[in-house]
Amino acid sequence: MPWISEDRRHTRVAEGQPLLTESLKAVLRDKYFPRYPSKRAVLLPALHLLQHEYNWLPTQAVQEIAEFLEIAPAEALDTASFYEEYWLKPKGKYLLQVCRSLTCELCQSEQLRDHLSQKLNVDPGETTADKRFTLVELECLGACGTAPVVMVNEVLHENVTTDRLDQIIAALPEDPHDMKDPGMTWDNDGH
Amino acid sequence: MPKITVDGQTIECKDKQMIIQACADAGIEVPHYCYHPGLSIVASCRICLAEVEGVPKLVPTCQTPVRDGMVVHLNSTKSIANQKQVMEYLLVNHPLDCPVCDQAGECNLQDYSYQFGRSESRFEEAKQKKPKKDVGLHVLLYNDRCIMCTRCVRFTREVAGTSELFVDGRGSKEEIEIFPGKPLNNKLSGNVVDLCPVGALLDKDFLFKQRVWFLKSAPSISPADAGGENIWVHHNEGVVYRLKPRYNEQLNKWWISDDTRYSHKVVNDPKRLYGAMRTQYGSQVESNYDDAIQQADTDLKRIHKENGDASLCAVLSPMMASEEAYLLGKYIRSIDPAALLVIGPVPMAAEDEVFRHYVSGQETFRIQAEKVPNKNGVTRVIDLLGGAKQTWDEFSQQHPTKLKAAWVVGGYLSHWTGLDAPAPLKKLYKVVQDILPSHLTHHADILLPSATWVEKDGSWENYQNMSQAFVAAFPPRDGAMREGNVYAKLLGRRTYDVAHVRQEMGEPFTSIKVPTISEADEPAMEFVEI
Amino acid sequence: MAFTEPVLTKRIPLDASQRKLIGYDDYVATGGYKSLKQALEMPPADIIKTVTDSGLRGRGGAGFSAGQKWSFIPKEKKGPHYLCVNADESEPGTFKDRYLIDHDPHLLLEGIAIACLATQCDIAYIFIRGEYHYSAKVLEHALKEAYAHGIFGGDGVLGSGKKVECYVHRGAGAYICGEETGLLEALEGKRGWPRNKPPFPAIAGAFARPTVINNVETLMCVPHILERGPAWFKTMGTPSSPGPKLFGMSGHVNNPGVYEDELGITLDYAINKLAGGMKGGAYKASVCGGISMGILGTNQLDIKLDFDDVRFRGGCLGLGTAGMIVMNEHTDMVKALRNCVRFYAHESCGQCTPCREGSNWMRKILDRILDGDGKAADLQMLMELEKTMGIMPGTTICGLADGTAWATRTFINKFYDEFALRCPEAPTKTIPLKVSSGRLNVLTPMGSNTR
């Protein structure tokens, strides 16, 4: 082939046990299908569901979702790749999301980013060697009144300082699924 | 019918037509990238914006329907400013590698840059680099050059219905991509190369083969199947470099199948037959072409004389032009009025390949199962000539013993006879006209290498009984002769004049329209004395 | 004109430590779902008329009349109608919808139910941005309660036979999905590329059916309007922008947070009375309603925060979401603008050429200026690029590029000197070039090399 080109034709999707298991399919079928007039509309919820399950979205998962929703795999990936929240490459157990938008920047979010970057020895966008943390900078998290904010997986921490950041990280459980949102005063019925 | 005014020129439009299409119909070019009449409208490239009186904002002409009395300004200060700005934006991340780009010379970026752009870019920052990808059997993707018009993506969804291509990512980082391991291998894949307004999607077959400004074009018809897809033959110095779709509203619209697209391979196949042969003492020897024709004539007349009527037959290939088939029939019947006319084998796929819109399921394209272009035409000619006739199957199964000699025409795009000569022909005296070597050509008593469809004039009748003419792109190489010319010689005519033959054949052949190369395609040269 | 008591935040105490999630029982105990019962007695056209009469303008940014928007929905029903609740609050400086949802979700649900009755919608989708994990859980929880109490599903709203379903649909991290049609695309499971209009959502929106799209705060006003009447609503705010409004105060102020007051208060009042005054230095500038709307300058403290004054006197695009990002005198405006433009470059959906390429180009120029490599031509370039983007010049499908344009325009115009200082007429900087040995090799600008 002239010049260097990526051979996308023969890239194989790693295939193992189905990631979209029967029980996950049942959730989609029973909970989400009745909500929408088209199967395709279930795509975003389905991607969320599988990402919640596996911490990221392997290509195989996208392919299985596409098959289940009766759309072309490329269309599913088209959608998935558009949204920032879907991780199409593996990430650490804990995703440390530092808001970098205007209010947070005015409130010194860069210090938080640099602190984390040094502490974990990674640049934004990278994952620590032990695969425990991935550091990212995000655009506005919608909590400007309590800037600067850092979101760890699904839990938002407000008015964060470097000291509090250390405490937050130290208090993280081994398994991310054990993490509780302190604001939740009722039983989690999932989303 | 609404009338609109574009830059002072009043044009008539169809109801609900978009401005850009109305302009195109009236021969006014509005610059555009994402708009394509055969695809859905996304209005995302934004270069077609124009000022319309009474509307404060610029309007996308591809997405705004005409209204009677509308006054459109393509050349107003605002419109021009927008065109210039969009051009500059598009070139911000474009590598400008025109010298090594196949699209150079037929590139909308180049053309519009010249017509509507700035002379230089003010972008001083680093350009983004994006990878080159091998995305399909026939298609390469140079993401660097892509301007994200998404025509290709829309094509795979809305026409091919296979949805292989998609947009990956968002914003300035987005790229065209395929799902890993699910390549763009559908039978319409080559069309994305035609659709690409820049050099991002490239045909591997044409890659680095020829600069497009050397190419000449001839209107033609697809030889690949009975669909009768309209094509342009792009050639230079006797070499066909590529086939491109020629718009036909009723048939192929803007598209052709890959079968058609790569059917030109046979034209410049190194194995093609050149030079007439005749059998002497059991083996083939080279012969002067005219002598070989004479020999065939003499032999056939002798055989008829010795064996009486119905001893001759002609196998008329469904690859032949109708006019040629007519002349051959005429000729063979002039020797043997009871000669049998057989239509050659008609290779068939199991079924038509149908392409559908990815959501609506509406049929968008159909590749015919019948893999020859002119079964209907040849059948019509045989009926026109009357007398004894057979299909290939009938001919193969019940071999009439009285037959002594056959005139066999091949011309198939690939070897058609298999390993062995067709059984019914085995014991006969054979005059064979063909383009590729085969068992049959090896055992021909007289071998007359013939011309491919790009080397001759004629017409084919497609599956809908629509007869369409094709025009010779260039003459056959020495050592091959158009079938028509051979028959003309045998019938004692001066030349093979297609128009004349059509007159002779009567309707519907007389009313076949011959496509011409419009002046826009071949600008007239003005000769001046220096 | 008087704002005497909190309306939308009447159940949310000002003291943060006292705040809690208002459940169904608490909500009903404080007069909740009364308006819904009232709405059930009214023909849909009357509900729309009441809302139109109140002069309620959309709180999502554009300030379009809510009642009028509802009236565009075809009266004759030939299939399902949809309501999409826009809770994709992603505009920097805006956090009011999160505040409302997190504390008083049932007010939103009541507003949704009423809107569905008014526009004959069968299904309401609450499109909430993906990052609002907690808020999504709050809504799921509140919906569970509402379903259990017959607000949604079952035999129709409170057993009336007019059945309305309501679901939460989570976005997944894309600012552009806050744009109406981008939202619809995301709802349908596609990439959030805004659609071309026409057709407008009121005719062919979600799943090609008539669709109403309303902001959270807008819908939350509706139960109050029904309960207390349009005349009461108009006692607050200005004639053209009536009603209460949530102001999100953030940045360099002593008490950042969401405050409710009426439309038409001055910026000065918002900063000094609501948010407790400036922190760390004197006032310099304030983003007036999310960064898309542009910035109010140092001498614009008297601008009235309503849909018109910000625009006509303030020189901004509009009030937007009324999210104020207040900056003190020590703020680097070049860096602040870079932050805004980086946001737009990052969030551009990539559909239209001017926005996709232009925002990124501007970001690169600003990066360079921040690195100390600016020159006078850069400022001209920025101003020229800005003018070629967005709906207002008409070169893009949606208004995202307008955000880029207006932020850039107002920042540079109002703080020109600060920018000019960083962009001198002639470059003064020598460019250090790292060579492979690791030593620094100082190159002078091109031209002085006389070999």
Please identify, by name, the CATH architecture of one domain in chain B: 3-Layer(aba) Sandwich
**Main beta sheet of chain A: strand number and arrangement?**
4 strands, mixed
Secondary structure category of chain B: alpha/beta
CATH topology of one domain in chain B: Rossmann fold
Query: Which strand order spans the largest sheet of chain A, edge to edge or round the barrel?
Result: 3-2-4-5
How many runs of DSSP E, i.e. beta strands of chain B? 25
Task: Please count the helical segments of chain B.
Answer: 13
* Cα-atom radius of gyration of chain A: 19 Å
Shape of chain A: globular
Question: Ends of chain A: how far apart?
Answer: 48 Å
For this entry, what is the oligomeric state of its chains?
Answer: heterotrimer
Strand content of chain B: 15-25%
Low confidence ranges of chain A: none
Quick one: biggest sheet of chain B? 8 strands, mixed
List keywords for this structure.
A: 191 residues, alpha+beta, Glutaredoxin, 2 domains, 4-stranded mixed beta sheet, 7 helices, 5 strands, B: 530 residues, alpha/beta, Rossmann fold, 5-stranded mixed beta sheet
Written overview of the protein:
The complex is a heterotrimer of chains A (191), B (530) and C (451). Chain A contains 7 helices and 5 strands, in the order E-H-H-H-H-E-H-H-E-E-E-H. Chain A is α+β, with helices and mostly antiparallel strands and 191 residues long. Chain A has 2 domains: 22-82, Arc Repressor Mutant, subunit A; 94-177, Glutaredoxin (3-Layer(aba) Sandwich). In chain A, a hairpin with a 2-residue loop joins strand 4 (150-152) and strand 5 (155-157). In chain A, helix 2 packs antiparallel against helix 3 and helix 3 crosses helix 4. Chain B has 530 residues and is of the alpha/beta class. Among the domains of chain B are: 3-90, Ubiquitin-like (UB roll) (Roll), CATH 3.10.20; 276-346 and 372-511, Rossmann fold. In chain B, 22% of the residues lie in helices and 20% in strands. In chain B, the strands form 7 sheets. Chain B has an 8-stranded mixed β-sheet. A 5-stranded mixed β-sheet of chain B has the order 2-1-5-3-4, with helices on one face. Chain B has a 3-stranded antiparallel β-sheet with strand order 6-7-10. In chain B, strand 24 (458-461) and strand 25 (467-470) form a beta hairpin. In chain B, helix 2 (77-92) packs across helix 3, helix 8 (322-335) runs parallel beside helix 9 and helix 8 packs parallel to helix 12 (483-490). Chain B is elongated and about 90 Å long. The model of chain B has no long low-confidence stretch (mean pLDDT 91). Chain C has helices at residues 24-29, 34-41, 44-54, 66-71, 96-103, 105-119, 133-148, 180-187, 201-204, 216-234, 267-274, 309-312, 333-347, 353-373, 376-387, 400-414, 416-422; strands at residues 82-87, 123-128, 165-170, 211-215, 244-251, 257-262, 265-266, 283-287, 295-296, 304-305, 323-328, 431-434, 440-443. Helices cover 41% and strands 14% of the residues of chain C. In chain C, the strands form 4 sheets. A 5-stranded mixed β-sheet of chain C has the order 6-5-11-8-9, sandwiched between helices. Chain C has a 4-stranded parallel β-sheet with strand order 3-2-1-4, sandwiched between helices. Chain C has a two-stranded antiparallel sheet with strand order 7-10. Chain C is of the alpha/beta class and 451 residues long. Chain C is globular and about 75 Å long. Chain C starts with 23 loop residues before the first helix and ends in an 8-residue tail after the last strand. The chains are: A alpha+beta (191), B alpha/beta (530), C alpha/beta (451). Strand 1 (6-7) of chain A pairs parallel with strand 6 of chain B.
